[in-house]
Amino acid sequence: MTTTQETTPTWTNPPAIRRQQILRDTRTVAVVGASANAARASNFVATYLLASTGFDVYFVNPNATEILGRPVYASLDALPVVPDLVDVFRKPADLSGVLDEVLALDPHPSTFWLQFGLFDEGLARRAEKAGLEVVMDRCLKVEHARFHGGLHLAGFDTGVISSRRRDG
């Protein structure tokens, strides 16, 4: 008889107040796995970052040359700057290689950010051991909007303070 043992994650994201501080301290963002396809999440997030933040945004994708009118770089080491934050839109099997690229930069970026659906405790611990702040399974766009008035901590910012329904 085979038994399975569920493991409970022991790694947790930084608390909301720390994630907010990370975004306040960030000036440059590299979007790894950026896509020119408007239907892809990375394109939607990139569009938001360019239109709604003061971040200098760089796109990394070896198969594209231009996204949203901006140049695209084949790798992190091809960027003209070392970004403060690396936002990753890649499949789980690629994450270790992306972290290797991040750790090869000198100096290292401050934050290694994995988008919704990407969570790897071992990877997070390796990044933290190298001195990086790690955020996983969180959307950079959602977090930025949450902390800058686009979303309330509990959801969309409707501007309604009361829990009562409006008449009419």
Helicity range of the residues?
25-40%
Q: Outline, from the CA principal axes?
A: globular
CATH superfamily annotation of the domain at 35-149: NAD(P)-binding Rossmann-like Domain
Q: Taking all residues together, what is the mean pLDDT?
A: 89
Low-confidence stretches: 157-164
Helix-and-strand structural type: alpha/beta
The ordered H/E elements are: HEHEEEEHEHEHEE
The name of the CATH architecture of the domain at 35-149 is 3-Layer(aba) Sandwich
Extended strand count: 9
The CATH class name of the domain at 35-149 reads: Alpha Beta
Round the Cα radius of gyration to an integer and report it.
18 Å
Oligomerization status of the protein chains: single chain
* Largest β-sheet summary: 7 strands, mixed
Q: Which strands sit side by side, in order, in the main sheet? A: 3-4-2-1-5-6-7
Strand content: 15-25%
What is the distance, rounded to the nearest whole angstrom, between the alpha carbons of the first and last residues? 62 Å
Domain CoA-binding: 22-118
Protein name: CoA-binding domain-containing protein
InterPro entries: CoA-bd (IPR003781), NAD(P)-bd_dom_sf (IPR036291)
Organism: Pseudonocardia sediminis
Please describe the structure with a list of short key phrases separated by commas or semicolons.
168 residues; alpha/beta; 7-stranded mixed sheet; two-stranded antiparallel sheet; 9 strands; 29% helix
